[in-house]
Amino acid sequence: MSDLDKFKKRILITGGAGFIGSNLLHCMVPKYPDYLFVNLDKLTYAGNLSNLQAIEMAENYIFARGDIADNDLVSELFKVYQFDGLINLAAESHVDRSIMGSERFLRTNIMGTHNLLEISRKHSLFKKDFRFHQVSTDEVFGSLGNEGKFTESSCYLPNSPYAASKASADHFVRAYWKSYGLDVVTSNCSNNYGPYQFPEKIIPLMINNALKKEPLPVYGNGENVREWLFVKDHCKAIDLVFHKGQTGRTYNIGGDNEIKNIDLVKMLCRIMDDLTGESGHEKLIKFVEDRPGHDLRYAMDYSLIEKELGWKPEYEFKRGLMETVEWYLDNREWMEKCTSGEYKTYYNTWYKKRLEDK
Ligand SMILES: NC(=O)c1ccc[n+]([C@@H]2O[C@H](COP(=O)([O-])OP(=O)(O)OC[C@H]3O[C@@H](n4cnc5c(N)ncnc54)[C@H](O)[C@@H]3O)[C@@H](O)[C@H]2O)c1
Question: What secondary structure letter does DSSP report for 112?
């Protein structure tokens, strides 16, 4: 019996050093001691091994650095570990960066996912129970008006290069099910918040800038609405969909917490006032030129996953947000590391002019 045979299942997690991936590994590695988790991550600016300190020594966890688009490397990993399943979280994930330049988004989100699918297809010819789980976003559906919610049968109408690349990857996932019978499931989730999120995204960005008493840049008039889900709720949903979702299905995952960006930022300012004992964070808010093609509103109807798999969000928004701010305040060194180096170039290129213009 080889060392690998002692594991009931061997799962490839891609993008496990990022925000959602690291939270997912924190949840699944201790929960399934009889599974082996192999985390394949390229460690781009958004990947951070220090996110995984709590589990890096676990016997059922292995890290492999590399690119999901690298055919030789991924094929070798499949050969060595004989995976029973794959959860694909690796992606270029930031809308603004995709507007600045979309080539990397095509390479990772589309070509990378295609590479994983093609290797999975060949592998599944003899590993019959192999499952491919694609982690996707609500942004593939485009923008809502003031009413209604996206359902699993809403049309894909992506508006940003990021959303277009995720939409394309989702279509390939479906095509590999329809054309080759690969066992696939896809989950489309609303905006996540929580620990380990790279500080280019709105919540940690505002916390970081507020801590440094720098302007809090809010796009347009701040009226755009997003629906928020605590990352741990998302991870529970991924676990359920991966294990119990029906082949070929897509599942919408949402948090029931719709809020305008400006109200979210004001809420964060109040929490910062309370937790730091310093008032006046709201005065730092600065409206800046809108993001091009900025979707007005997203909202997810998650009744399918609720009815079929018994999932619903558990975290109350205020509590989740409070815990999140506390985490960033307790982990300033982590934030400092993320925002030094390359981040500065991005921030200055994207926001500096916007902040100066107003
Ligand atoms: N954050 C959200 O609110 C949200 C909501 C819904 C869906 N999603 C999806 O969930 C997934 C994870 O999102 P996130 O917010 O954790 O992203 P993230 O940017 O924090 O992490 C992405 C991870 O993927 C890795 N990566 C990037 N390119 C790679 C490549 N070519 N090969 C291997 N690894 C690579 C990075 O190093 C990083 O660790 C993405 O697919 C995203 O589209 C995110």
Answer: I
- Closest C-alpha among 212, 221, 218, 229 to residue 344: 212
Domains and CATH numbers, the chain: 8-198+228-258+293-317 (3.40.50.720)
* 135 CA to centre of ligand 1 in angstroms: 9
Q: What is the whole-number distance in angstroms between the Cα of residue 108 and the centre of ligand 1?
A: 10
Active site residues: 138-139, 162
* Residues 15 and 169: beta-carbon distance below 8 Å: no
Q: Residue 150 forms beta bridges with which residues?
A: 300
Query: In which residue are the tokens 């990352």 written?
Result: 231
Whose CA is closest to 163, among 291, 288, 66?
Answer: 291
What are the pLDDT digits (tens) for 32-72? Answer: 999 999 999 999 999 999 999 999 999 999 999 999 999 99
Q: What is the pTM of this model?
A: 0.98
Exposure string of 189-224, with b = 16+ CB inside 10 Å and e = fewer, is bbbbbbbbbbbbbbbbbbbbbbbeeebbbbbeebeb
